[in-house]
Amino acid sequence: MYSNIWRNFIAAADKAANTVILAVGPVFIVLAVGLIGLATTVYFTVVFPSFYVWDEDYIWTKIYYYLGLIFSIYMVVCIFFHYYMAVRTKPGGVLNVGTEQSDSNDPTIQDLFLELEEYQEYPKTCKKCHLPKPERAHHCSVCRRCVLKFDHHCPWIANCVGHFNHRYFLLFMTYLVIGCFYFALVGWKPFLLSLGETGWDWSMPRPYVALSFLLAVAIGLALGGMCSWHYYLIITAQTTVEFYNNQYARRTARAKGEVYVNPYDLGPVVNLCQFFNVGRNYKYPIYTIFLPIPMSPPGNGKVWEKNPMSYANVQTEISEDTD
Predict the structure, then answer these.
(1) S-S: 142 plus which of 18, 127, 150, 258, CB 3.0-4.6 Å?
(2) Which spans are transmembrane here (predicted)?
């Protein structure tokens, strides 16, 4: 009896927490845009003019100035573009596969079952939303729906990170981390001046400069670790959810004297090319990674290319069991 009461309490608390996370998403977006906007304003009003000094008498200082200005604008554009796309792009649901399809073209449940039956003898069904569950799809307890190639729900974008917006999310983190470390590298002198009481020639108040510098360092370190973790997952063809599932599968296989092979791991280089959809066998040229333009991921997020070694291991296990 008490165990049932406790389980019901945990379920209710989890549901309430997920509801709060979903509700406060827009607040996190406003906060993120505000903090990045503050740091950007401080950079162009204080940090940039203090580091890139204009000198009419030397051509090299002018070139240096313009190169720094172009780089700075490029970084700001990339940060805001990829953040906007990560927020606005649907990660991909079971019945609505992305932003390229309208609701009138969304597949029905019957269509989805028929599509999955081409690749799976018995298509899986989600135990929570009771819909067909493609491979690599997982149920988000916050959004209460299955998401294609689900990685996690991020409150800072008020959205799930999934098949169609994972690329934007990763590039947003990448550019933001680079921008934070660059801000700290060129802005440490104005930061030290902002801590004093004299020698301040800027219209921007000192506390804003100090706050922006500390935020850049803190976010650069924290987000840098998270960004590195996501690159590791990508080059090993895993999502955050799949990483923990694969860890369990490896331990189980090791206990049986077997070797587990991630079926989606095609090698680090191919995994990266597949994720960004660039390279010889994919849609876009490699240089498009550095352009702030919309780019679709490969495939529909329901069916994925497999590593032949995973099939070899399965056949070996079957033959051993038969013997």
Answers:
(1) 18
(2) 20-43, 63-84, 168-188, 208-234
Range of the domain at 56: 2-89+165-235
Tokens (6 digits) for 251: 């331990």
A 10 A CB-CB count for 23 gives: 10
User: Among 140, 143, 154, 180, which one carries the catalytic annotation?
Assistant: 154
In sequence order, the 6+-apart residues with CB closer than 8 A to the CB of 93 are: 145, 146, 147, 148
Angle between helices 59-88 and 166-195 (to 10 degrees): 130
User: Locate tokens 């959004």: which residue?
Assistant: 143
Supply the DSSP symbol for 197.
S
Find the helix or strand (DSSP H, E) in which 127 lies: none
Give 237-271 pLDDT, tens digit per residue.
Answer: 999 999 998 998 888 888 888 888 898 999 999 99
Two tokens, residue 230: 């996501």
In a domain, 65, yes or no: yes
Say how far apart CA 99 and CA 106 lie, in whole Å: 11
Active site residue 154: yes
Give the tokens for residue 48: 């940039």
Give the count of domains, the chain. Answer: 1
Burial class (CB in 10 A: 0-12, 13-18, 19+), 261: buried
pLDDT of residue 319: 34
Using the structure block, give the residue that is written with the tokens 């510098």. Answer: 213
Task: Quote the CA–CA distance of 111 and 40 in Å, as a whole number.
Answer: 48
Q: Which of 157, 187, 193 is nearest to 172 (CA)?
A: 157
Query: CB–CB of 28/155 below 8 Å?
Result: yes
* Res 2: pLDDT: 56
Strands (E), 42-170: 138-140, 145-147, 152-154, 159-161
